[in-house]
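Module 6 notes. Inverse folding takes a fixed backbone as the condition and produces residue identities as the prediction. Think of it as a translation problem where the source language is geometry and the target language is the twenty amino acids. Below is one complete input and output pair. Work through it position by position during the lab.
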């Protein structure tokens, strides 16, 4: 059986890896740009189950089990890591304490061991935090992070060694359908046929499926993140500022750089190569209130995904 996967992000590579491990021996991934060029290479590394709906909590609880399992498997030898630094949710308002208690009880009822932590424990876990503006904090101890490129390249190497064909610079232009089946995909390098087609092209899956009349109800919502210069190891958890709209967050990479993100007013379909200059002050102001020591750190880069 020949499988053709469109998209060289985490979805495409994990699908290829899983199929290859199950014995499918003719798998091709086509990626129009470079590996990780989509959201995967632009993400902020965080992995958590502390969500606000049952479905999301349960899905991600199982996801975390898989991350740990894969990190201990051969993928770990290829470089995939799950770094369990936890998430710390910060509330600035006293009234958020009740909401955090409700969330803790939701998470705990599905086996996710979040808990409220006191100021001493917060100081221990995040020593640089400005406790003057913190009303309460919730810890998700099983949350963690994984670096997108090390993860993706672990999968890339594993897939390559399992015989998966990986073609970059090959763009799917049009799906060719016959009856209720796709029979080939037209690309910028000619037509490719397979028995099974997997469209893992991120938000662009919608445009591809439209070429055979399928409307995928997804929207391309931009996410913004910046990275600072490197700093000595400061803290392990990803810290999120719950009471500030757009929930700004900060996480330190293994190399010491900080990723700082915040959702700003949505401007759907913004190009990956455009910028919103107002993002910088919007993200940096709340984060430097929480972490005054960051005031003098330089921003290296900002991007959209
Ligand atoms: C700033 C930001 C922060 C984020 N932070 C987090 C986080 O902390 N935690 C988390 O879990 N998630 C986070 N996400 C979301 C996460 O990155 C995505 O859910 C995930 O990477 C999606 O992976 P994917 O493989 O489905 O899509 P993508 O990574 O977008 O991969 C799709 C690939 O398909 C390729 N492609 C598109 N069209 C074609 C075509 N026609 N032919 C061939 N190739 C094509 C693209 O170039 C791309 O490489 C974040 C996203 C962003 C942007």
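Target side of the pair, the amino acids:
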């Amino acid at each position: 059986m020949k499988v053709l996967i469109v998209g060289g992000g985490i979805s495409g590579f994990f699908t290829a890896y899983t199929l290859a491990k199950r014995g499918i021996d003719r798998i091709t991934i086509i990626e129009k740009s470079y590996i990780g060029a989509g959201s995967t290479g632009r993400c902020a590394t965080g992995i958590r189950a502390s969500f606000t709906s049952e479905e999301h909590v349960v899905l991600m609880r199982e996801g975390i089990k898989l991350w740990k399992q894969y990190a201990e498997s051969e993928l770990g030898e290829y470089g995939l890591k799950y770094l369990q630094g936890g998430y710390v949710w910060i509330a600035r308002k006293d009234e958020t304490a009740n909401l955090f208690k409700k969330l803790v009880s939701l998470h705990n009822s599905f086996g996710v061991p979040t808990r409220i932590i006191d100021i001493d424990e917060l100081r221990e876990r995040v020593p640089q935090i400005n406790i003057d503006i913190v009303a309460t904090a919730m810890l998700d101890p099983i949350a963690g992070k994984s670096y997108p490129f090390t993860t993706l390249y672990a999968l890339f190497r594993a897939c390559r060694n399992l015989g998966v064909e990986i073609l970059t610079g090959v763009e799917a232009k049009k799906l060719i359908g016959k009856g209720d089946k796709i029979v080939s995909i037209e690309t910028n390098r000619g037509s490719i046929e397979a028995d099974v087609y997997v469209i893992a092209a991120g938000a662009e899956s919608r445009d591809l499926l439209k070429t055979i009349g399928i409307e995928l109800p997804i929207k391309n919502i931009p996410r913004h993140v910046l990275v600072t210069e490197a700093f000595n190891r400061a803290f392990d958890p990803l810290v999120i500022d719950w009471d500030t709209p757009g929930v700004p967050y900060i996480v330190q990479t293994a190399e010491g750089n900080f990723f700082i993100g915040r959702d700003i007013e949505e401007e759907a379909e913004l190009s990956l190569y455009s910028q919103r200059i107002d993002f910088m002050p919007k993200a940096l102001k709340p984060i430097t209130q929480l972490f005054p020591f960051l005031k003098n750190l330089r921003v290296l880069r900002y991007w959209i995904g």
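Reference fact for the lab report: The first strand starts at residue 2 and ends at 6.
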